[in-house]
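G., the chain you wanted modeled:
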Amino acid sequence: MKYDLGNACLPLKAPSTVQLLRPVRVFPSGRADIEISAQPIKPLDQVLPAGTRLHVRRVSQTAKVDVSHTNIDVLGRLDDGRTFFYVWGYGQALDRAPWEDAATPALRTMPCAHR
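Predicted structure as tokens:
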């Protein structure tokens, strides 16, 4: 089951546009043209640089068999037309997204997300 969180209490609404504040890793994805990851960048990784604009189309939560492991996902497109997918968090926990500044907690709870 998929829940639309685009207009919930999350600090990101859909649709919207955000700008990366730090570079992110990029790799192929079965859910979009690319998947982005805020994990540390390694040599030879493909990256999107800080300043890249992300046009957010949907923020959703997908319930799986074990609802404690539901993903909070962000989907959208880049200026070049490629679609992207980003796993922002799990359950009710959100990680600091690459468009959020260092004042944002590295991990926080969002009570509006489904348990």
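DSSP finds no helices and ten strands in the chain.

Shout if anything looks off.
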